[in-house]
Protein: Homoserine dehydrogenase
Organism: Croceibacterium salegens
Amino acid sequence: MAAPLRIALAGLGTVGAGLVRLIESNGALIASRAGRPVEIVAVSARDRSKNRGVDISGYAWEDDMTALAARSDVDVVVELVGGSDGPALATARHALKGGKALVTANKAMIAHHGLELAELAEANGVALRFEAAVAGGIPVIKGLREGAAANRIERIYGILNGTCNYILSTMEQTGRDFGEVLKEAQELGYAEADPTFDVEGVDAAHKLAILAALAFGAKIDFAAVDVGGIGRVRAADIAQAEALGYRIRLIGMADVDDQGNLFQRVQPCLVPHNNPLAAVDGPTNAVVAEGNFSGRLLFQGAGAGDGPTASAVAADLVDIARGDTGAPFSVPAAELAAFAPADAGHRTGRTYLRFVVADRPGVLAEIAAAMRDGGVSIESLIQQGRPEEGGEVLVAMVTHEGPEANVAKALALLEGSASLAEAPLVMRLLG
Amino acid sequence: MAAPLRIALAGLGTVGAGLVRLIESNGALIASRAGRPVEIVAVSARDRSKNRGVDISGYAWEDDMTALAARSDVDVVVELVGGSDGPALATARHALKGGKALVTANKAMIAHHGLELAELAEANGVALRFEAAVAGGIPVIKGLREGAAANRIERIYGILNGTCNYILSTMEQTGRDFGEVLKEAQELGYAEADPTFDVEGVDAAHKLAILAALAFGAKIDFAAVDVGGIGRVRAADIAQAEALGYRIRLIGMADVDDQGNLFQRVQPCLVPHNNPLAAVDGPTNAVVAEGNFSGRLLFQGAGAGDGPTASAVAADLVDIARGDTGAPFSVPAAELAAFAPADAGHRTGRTYLRFVVADRPGVLAEIAAAMRDGGVSIESLIQQGRPEEGGEVLVAMVTHEGPEANVAKALALLEGSASLAEAPLVMRLLG
C-alpha cells in the first residue's frame, strides 16, 4: 500500500473532534478505499488541555496554527477553526503557500476569500477542497463539480441552513410563532446562542455564493447576494401559505439571467407541496441543481453536526489521497467569469405580500390602489377576520405572474403610509 | 490545453444519440471543466444509415463494434448497446484487454459480469466506470464511492425503477388498477412494450446488486437478490396503505446483517409518509445511503431518459479526462469480499399481508389461526366489506414487529387452503 496521507488538524471543536473519531473508527475502511491510510500527524487548537472526548496525545501539538503548514511531515492542512479571517485565513494561506493541500469546512472564509485561495492553490500545484463548507455531510459540491460536470447548470436552489429549516418546519407543525420556536431551538442545540448569522440568512448566503461560483463558473461574489432572513415570518404567514398549497422555506437560489447577469438571493419563499423541498423538515439541508441534460437533481441530508461535517471533510481527504486534485472551482481560477449582479426587477414571478395594517376603513382600498398603480395584478387576497393584538389586522395577498419591479413600485407607493404598522413582508413563490 | 480525450461510441440508440447531442451542445463547457476536450472519434451500431436526429458523418464508422477497441486513435470505449452478454460484453472485454478505458450504462452487464470486468480493468491499468447504470442521471455511484467514502454504509435503499414508480404513483393518484396504468405507461413511453424486466423487479435488482457491491465492498452477487415485482399490487392495497399512513413503492434494499451476511431484496414496500421516498412520484429514482458518520443521504432525480443517462455517461468521461481512475468498485477487486447471502428469516419487521378469500364463514378464523400458530401477532386487520368480482373478499393485515420467519411459517400453514383464491401478497413496512 502507498505511503499514508499525513494530515494536520487546525481546530479541535466539535467538527475537529468528530474528524478524529471518524479517522479512528473508519481508518481501515478509508485506507482500503483511498488506496493508502489517512493519518493525523499534528494538531493545533486554542487550548491543549481541554477535554474533547478524544485522545490527542498521539499527535504532535503546535501552539501556533500556522506552524502546521511548515511541518515537513504534513501533506494536508485541515482548517476547522471557522471565521472568515483571523487564524483560519492565516492558516489557509500559510498552508497553500507552503505547498500543502488545504481542506476546510469554513463557508465564511471561502465565500469571502475563495478566489484568492483557489489562485494560491493552483499557483502552488496543491488541492483546495471545501465539501464540508456547504450542506454539511451532503456531497453536493462533488455532485455539481463532478456529477453534473457535463451540464450547463440552469438554476441552483436549496435549503442551506438547518437552523432556519428547523424553526420554519417546527412553526408549521406546532402553529407557534418565531420567537418561541427559536428559543426552543437554542435549548435543543439547533440554534446558536447568537443566532444572527443563521436566522438573517448570512450563513445560507455564504453557501449559496460558493454553489453559484461552482455552478456557473463565476468568480465568487458573496457581496452581491441579496440576503433576507426568517425573523419576520409569522405563524399566520405559514397558515396562509398552507391554505394556498405552499410551505415556507428559506431558499437560496442562483441563476444566470437573460441579460447574462448572476442572480443570487436568499429569502423565505413559498414552496409548492409538489416540490421535494416542501417535504424537507427539521435541521435538514437539500439542494436542487437543474442541468440542461441531467434535469433536476436533488441532494439531501444532514446540514450540520459533527458526524456529517467530518464525513464531508474526510471525503475530500480520500479524494486527495486518491490523487484527484482538479481546480477548486471546477474550472481554473483564471477562467472564472466576473458576472455583473442581476437586477431582480427584470425577473417575473408570483409574490406573496403580507401587510400588518390598522383595523380601520379604507386601508384595503389604499393597498389595492397602490397595487393597481404599480401594475401588480392580485390573484388572491386574504384579510384575516380577527384583529391581532393591538387592533392590527393581517392582510395577505398573492400576485399573478409579473415583474418584480412592479411589486417594488407598488410597495414604494405605500412607503410611509400611516395605515401600515410595519414594513410589508415580501416572499416569492418558487416556480 | 492538454490533448483531447478521444472516445468511441458503441451503440447509437436513444442514449447514444443523446450523448452525441450532449457533447455537441456542451463541448466547450466540458473542455473547460475537464481541462481537455472530450471528442467522439468513432462510432458503431447495427445500422449505419438509420436516422437518429444527429449527424454522425464526422466520425469514423466500424461495422464490428469490437473493432473500436483496436483503434489506435481511441482512449475510451463507451458501451451503450445493452444486454448482459452478446456484443456489449464482447465490446467491453475487447476494450479493457486492449488497454482502453470503458464507460458503460449497462446495468445488466455490470450486475452479471462486473467483477470480471473490474479485474480486467485493474489488470490493464484502465478505468471502468458505470455511473449511468444506476439511477439514470443521478450521481449516486459517485456519491457512494467518493462522497460517502469515509463512512461505513449501514444500509442502502431506494426507488431504482422509474417505470414501476410511475405505475405505483399513478395508481395512487387515480385509484386505477395495475393493468390499466401499465397500458397507459406503455403508450406514454414510460414502459417498454415488454415490461417484464421492469415490473418484475429485475431491472431494479441489477441496480441494487451494483449499489450493494459498492456500499459494502462485496463481490457483486446479482443471483442472490431476492426479487419481487409490482404486478400483484391492487388499487385496494394502495388504498389500505394510504389509510395506514403509507405509500407503496418498489424498494431495493441492501445491508450486511447481524450474522455478517449480505441482504439484498427488491420488493414493493409500505413507505411511511415521513420518509422522503414516499414523496417520490412519477418516473423518478431516489437512493438513500445511511453512513455511520454522514447519516442519511438522499440522491434523487430522473431515473432514465436520453438526457439524464447521457449526463451520467459524460460525468464518467470528465472524471477520466481529469485522470480520476480509481478502482471500479471503490476498493481493488482483489479486496472485494464474497458475502454469504443473508437468511431473511432472521430479520424482524412489520409486514403487510393481503389475502383474496372466498366470501364465506370461517375463512378469517382460518387465517387468524395460522397467524397464531406461526407466532405472528396482528396489529391491525381490515376486511373489505363489499366483495370483489366473483364473490371474493380482500383481507389485509399489518403485523406487529416480528421475525420474517414467523410470517413465512404462518403462510406455509395456509398453503393450499381452499379458502384462498390466490397466493397472499406480502409487503414489508420500511422501518
User: Anything to note?
Assistant: The mean pLDDT of chain A is 95. Chain A touches chain B through 63 residues (CB under 8 Å). Chain A is about 35% helix and 25% strand. Residues 346-429 of chain A form a domain with the Alpha-Beta Plaits fold (CATH 3.30.70.260).
